[in-house]
Amino acid sequence: MEIEVREMNDNFARFVLSDASPELANSLRRVLASELPKMAIHNVEFHLGPIMGEDGKEFESVTPLFDEMIAHRLGLVPLPTYLDEFNFRSECSCKGEGCPSCTVMYSLNKKGPCTVYSGDLEPLGSDKFRVRDEFIPIVKLGPNQAILVYATAELGRGREHAKFQAVQAPGYSYYPAITFNYDKFDASRFDVSCCPVRILEKKGGKIDVTDIEKCTLCQACADSAPKGAIAVTGDETKFVFRFETDGSLSAASALSKAADILEKMSEELAKKVSSL
Amino acid sequence: MIIPVRCFTCGKVIGSSYEIFLKRTAMGETAKEVLDSMGINRYCCRRMIISHADLIDEVLPFH
After folding, report:
1. Which CATH number covers residue A129?
2. d(Cα B41, Cα A12) in Å, to the nearest integer?
3. Positions of chain A with pLDDT under 50
4. Which of A30, A32, A93, A125 is most buried (CB neighbours < 10 A)?
5. Short-list A134, A125, A31, CA closest to A77
6. Which residues of B touch A77 (CB under 8 A)?
């Protein structure tokens, strides 16, 4: 298996996976989607009853949304994740009680009228846990309304809940190849605009492919040429792979962690099979 | 009610883009230009923003 990176930034990755098989590419996709750990708010405590303002003004702990809806929205906010510093809460040395090496606490204290944003979540402890995407609206507050919340974040995996899914829309396609048989059609009379991604160009009586990795294997060019003139095929050992992250992990660290997990899982399987 | 935090289908965070989208379309840009420049490429994420009915201000006075 070999990886040739085409694009790799904070929340997007595109690379060519070669010397692989569809099974391998799919297992990598599944690990990215459902096995990769990620931090998310999992426990939310609401303060009920009156909330005092700084000037002694009294606010009601009432919001236009139900508390469970706010808790759900808080859960979906992507939190910066430091995978090598945290354990799963159930596997931690504190035996699931919650300690600084398995949980991060946040507080949210806002008085209306205003919009509560994800950036209003204050991490208790280090500032590196501050939410990076700070303009996600959580709820709107009217006059005399206030919200006071303590939230606990912990590690989880995508298979548990979508909020623990660090990678969005992981996917791959066969590496495309387009072959032209110039004996069967006249390239100068061929309409290159039939390609929906516009990668075909006429060049000196032949047809040139500008960026083969953009090809979606849609066969539109093959359909608009005489039968057998153009063949669009996919290479089953080479893949164009792409995925996005929600910002909790960088694309590069998500990919390397996923490769580690895949390796560990395969080793475990091999061990179990050999003991049968 | 209020813009969802994530796209229902793929899970991309779209909540933070909604207010920018409203501002820029009000300034005269088309929805297509705004969504393309913000990197909201899939139609699942685009419909989250285009088809959203923001009703939270209507229910705000009644709690």
Report:
1. 2.170.120.12
2. 12
3. none
4. A32
5. A134
6. 5
